[in-house]
Structures are given as structure tokens and as C-alpha cells.
Design brief:
304 residues, alpha/beta, Rossmann fold, eight-stranded mixed beta sheet, 11 helices, 8 strands
Length: 304
């Protein structure tokens, strides 16, 4: 057989055997009766999704605060490229990844932390559990069970991922939190009025200063309070939670405290401190190990 013909045949066989490329859809919305408005999201559909009738686990991606938005996962973190590489190399199994928009409104003046407001005026966490997850599981071919859902969060999203896992341990297989933005009491009290308003003005309550910021809502976000209220048996055998934070990250102290409290309570988890700060170079470098952890906690979702 001529060389050119052989190459053509081999290429055709490869294209036939190889799965189709992943599909990233950046502009999507789901209705929400809880928020009384649609919620935007971006979605990653793995290689082969269009060709096969199989169902997949879902990884929810929670972005950071400030100017953070769903597209960051793709334009700044390149998570679609990392997922493609790991899936096609057989290092992780295929999954759907969904990045909801955790911003309050177009102004983005006040962070939501993906949580409910102190006065319940906006209930982002309730929306996520009651509207968003069911909406995604009905719109896409998902396995649609607690052991086939996981969360990966950065900064504000890393804190929310931890809160969700501890508050709803039976709803998620596990989480990975990169640079989770847990603060010490001292850091909360030292925030300027403007910084406090932008970060916690709705989650803890508006116009608070000094010790008044240590509200009941803040108490519920303390690791001790969340751990006391969770089902510890859910974490007895499997390290469902994974934390990676930079050695020079401003939230290192509070995240280390969380690790020590989890260890004291015998809630199995993984905790890693790496070189780096609270920035995209650190998060991009940390992404692969976080996704490998997610694949490990999702293993039962594949029927294994």
C-alpha cells in the first residue's frame, strides 16, 4: 500500500475512534423562582458528549469575588483545556462542568459568597440547591445523584464550596477549595467600612463596625459551628474535602485553623500549602491536582 494511502487510512481510523471535541458554551441561563430572575452560567460538555448517550457526573465551578465571573474558569484558568487533557489521557473520567454566575447584579458592588443574605432578601444558596442543580440535571445528561455531584471553588467560591459540603454533606460527593477566603475575627474587624460593605454587607448585615460584625450569621460560618452541625459519619472513611492554599495567601491563617479544627473533629480531608499567593498563577498551577481529587470522590458515581 502506498505511504500516502496508508497515512490517509490511519488518519481516518483515528478520527473515527477518537471522541468528538469538548463543547464549551459560555452564555446560558436557567430560570429561578427563588431569585425571581434567570441565573447565567457557562458549561463544559466533555469529549464524546454529542456522540454518546451516556450520563455524566457534574462538577460545579464557583468563581471568586470582586470582578469574578463564570467565564474566568475558561478564559483565565483554562479549565476546559486541563479537563480535555486529563480526560483524553485517561487520568480522570469524563464529567460535565458548570460555572454559575454568583454575582448579585450588573454592578457587582456587593459579593454574594454564594450564600443567602442575612435578611433573606436574596437567597443564592437556596436557589442553588432548589432551582439550579435540578435545572442542570434536567437540561443535560447527568447521573443526577448526590454521589455524582462535586464542587470546585476559588477564593469566595472555595469558601462557599466548604460551607455547602458541611451544611449539605449528603448532597455532594466532595469538594476542592483553592485559596478559600476564610477570615479570622481579626481580619473581619480590620476591614474598612467600604471593604466590609463590598464583601459582607448583605451576608452578615449592612453598616456594621467593630464587634457588631460578629453576627449570628458569622457564628454560623465559623468552622466549629459548621462541623458541630454536620454529619461527621459522612467524612469518616473518605477525604471528601481538599484544600490547597498559597504560603503567602492572606487567608492562610484562617484556612489552616479550619484544617486543624477538621483534624481535631476527625473529619477526613486533604490539606496542602504550596508556594504562591492569592492569584491566577497559583490557581492555574493548582487546578490539575484539584481535578484529580474530584475524580477520586466521584468514583462511586461511575458505578465502581
Amino acid at each position: 500500500m502506498p505511504v500516502k494511502t496508508l497515512i490517509a487510512v490511519m488518519t481516518a481510523l483515528f478520527l473515527t475512534a477518537a471522541p468528538s471535541r469538548a463543547d464549551v458554551r459560555m452564555q446560558n441561563v436557567l430560570p429561578s423562582s427563588t431569585l425571581d430572575r434567570p441565573v447565567a452560567y457557562s458549561v463544559y460538555l466533555p469529549p464524546g458528549y454529542q456522540d454518546q448517550g451516556r450520563e455524566y457526573p457534574v462538577l460545579y465551578l464557583l468563581h471568586g469575588g470582586g470582578t469574578g465571573q463564570p467565564s474566568d474558569w475558561f478564559t483565565l484558568a483554562g479549565i476546559d483545556q486541563t479537563l480535555d487533557r486529563l480526560i483524553l489521557a485517561g487520568r480522570i473520567r469524563p464529567l460535565i462542568a458548570v460555572a454559575p454566575d454568583g454575582r448579585r447584579d450588573a454592578e457587582k458592588a456587593v459579593a454574594t459568597y454564594f450564600l443567602d443574605d442575612a435578611d433573606d432578601k436574596q437567597q443564592w444558596q437556596r436557589m442553588f440547591m432548589q432551582d439550579f442543580i435540578p435545572g442542570i440535571e434536567s437540561r443535560y445528561r447527568t447521573l443526577a445523584s448526590p454521589d455524582t455531584r462535586a464542587i470546585l471553588g476559588i477564593s469566595m467560591g472555595g469558601m462557599a464550596a466548604t460551607v455547602y459540603q458541611l451544611r449539605h454533606p449528603d448532597q455532594f460527593a466532595g469538594i476542592a477549595a483553592l485559596s478559600a477566603s476564610f477570615r479570622t475575627d481579626k481580619q473581619l474587624l480590620e476591614l474598612s467600612d467600604q471593604a466590609y460593605a463590598a464583601r459582607f454587607g448583605t451576608v452578615l448585615g449592612p453598616d456594621l463596625s467593630g464587634a457588631d460584625r460578629l453576627t449570628d450569621e458569622w457564628e454560623l460560618l465559623r468552622p466549629q459551628s459548621m462541623i458541630a452541625a454536620t454529619d461527621a459519619s459522612r467524612f469518616a472513611r473518605v477525604p471528601r474535602m481538599y484544600f490547597d492554599i498559597g504560603a503567602d495567601d492572606p487567608f492562610l491563617e484562617a484556612t489552616t485553623d479550619l484544617h486543624l479544627i477538621l483534624r481535631e473533629a476527625k473529619l477526613r480531608h486533604r490539606f496542602k500549602v504550596s508556594e504562591g499567593n492569592h492569584d491566577w498563577p497559583f490557581w492555574r498551577a493548582a487546578l490539575e491536582d484539584a481535578l484529580i481529587h474530584i475524580d477520586a470522590v466521584l468514583t462511586r458515581g461511575y458505578g465502581e
